[in-house]
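Example record

The entry below shows one chain as it appears in the dataset: sequence first, then structure tokens.
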Amino acid sequence: SCQSNGAPNIILTDLIASLKISIDRMAALYLMCRVSFVTYATTVHFYNFSNRNFPQLIVADTANPFVPLPFTLQCWLQLGRDQDRIHRFLDSLLQISADISETECAIGAAAKVASLILDDGGGKVILTGSKLPTSGLGVVKPREVHKFHGTAKEAELFKPIDGFYPTMATDCAKQQISFDLILSPTEFIELATIGQLAHITGGSQNLFFNYDHKYDSHRLAAALEASLVQEAGYAGILRARCSKGLAVKGYHGHFWEQDPLDMDLAAVQCSSTMVVDIRQEAKIDPKSYSYYQVALLYTTRSGSRRVRVHTLKVPVCNSYVSLFRSVDLEACAFMYIKDAVQEALAKGTAAARAGITERIQKMLICYRKQCSTGSHSGQLLMPELLKLLPLYALALMKSDALVAGTTTPFDARVQGLFQLITMPSARVLPYLYPRFYAVHNLYSHEKAGQIDPSSGSVLMPPIMQLTADTVLNYGVYLLQDQQAHLCYLWIGSQVSAKSSLGLFGVEDAKQVGTTVLFENFTDRFQNIINYVVNQPWGRDRLIIIHEKKDVAIEDSFFRAMVEDENVAGSQSYSDLLCALHKKINSSLN
């Protein structure tokens, strides 16, 4: 994206720097891979890479875009062989962009020509953009978000605008072409519509609202690393099957469905996540085992066709007691997420939140009926392994994807829904329920902050409950908010000299953030902060908060306390448990 807006193109500068690193790493792994570069603004610009000056080939007809010939001879670059030319072109790209005095956005035409280039053999498109499509193919007239956002009619906004983007995404999926989106808007960009390119083709979607070099460049680099270097496959077909008495009823995730028995994946990465619905259809011997198998046929980045198979053997039981003793919290949470996302897209976020509460209620009623003896009307009974499920359900209802109200921009809500259904299961729970540490008593934990020599990971202090009741004015706390990509360091007004010296290297904690910075912190505390902020998806921003000094930022810190009534229209964890208890007693009586 090379629109002219009269300001330095910060994201393009960072994009170029990150592309150089990722393409060099890619070249070391896949020497025969071919790449090309296309820029766009009001028109679409190709480049003749066979000429050392890279002359532009401009397609001005963005309503009927085409690929200049002979593209294969002039516009492809091969990794390994053409690394010097790739670097020279990227080095010249800032000047090329500065010379383009076009202000419109023809992102639809750019996506179309990319699909034309790859239609003979498939591949991947990394598409960047920062504005609504205003020119050529795929022009989008923005909907009146303010009228529906946060209302009963919000579901209408989740539905993509019919026409170009869903149709083209389907055509690309058929041709084994996937799209990874890197979007950096400053205002509404109609992500529910443009995002169909990633949703249907199995690509990734990265939203950098109000892009900031200081805080977002690490995430941008991580997104490109995942797209270009992470182990991945093309032209994938995934099928799940199971033993007699069971049947696969459906798949959920980001893919194109040509056959209800398969998932067609134009692209698949090692972090890709899918959900499979399996239903019981016949009686199964309770003394036997059930079997599940998933097979993925795909092409590696280096061009080899492979099959990957996973097989699972699970014992069968015929009692709820045995079932609840073996249930998997992570899997249950993921299924709740899948159902909530589907309900939000179909009926709106209010219906999704109500549906989550109803599912929890039904599960607890079943447990009470089938697994308890005697009367327990005075207490809320929960399965041992699912005691935290209501808490994670509450956190899901307060996530950016489903939270009540309009505090979350609508595009960010769409991005949240996309992330929830594609996120690796191991990351889901800390994403919903932020990790919260009290660090003022760091040295009371003998090894906290030290590096484990066997694993290389940092030994962390105990995780705390996310409630303001645990925050004391003599304390120092670290909170990792993965949804906001922020790490809060909250410093109380009465921190002791001993605690301050042990963490910050000075006796007065009020100096932190002014004369005392991260490099002055003690080694063990630096290890903990580095462990929290450095994540596979990029480096989170560290925000230092002094008690009652910056009310707006401090409010954001306390809004992350999901066990409290921290958002208008939401409820606390204790209120949720009381409401569930009351409804269960009413239902059983």
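Notes for this example: Residues 286 and 317 are 5 Å apart (CA to CA). The mean pLDDT is 91.
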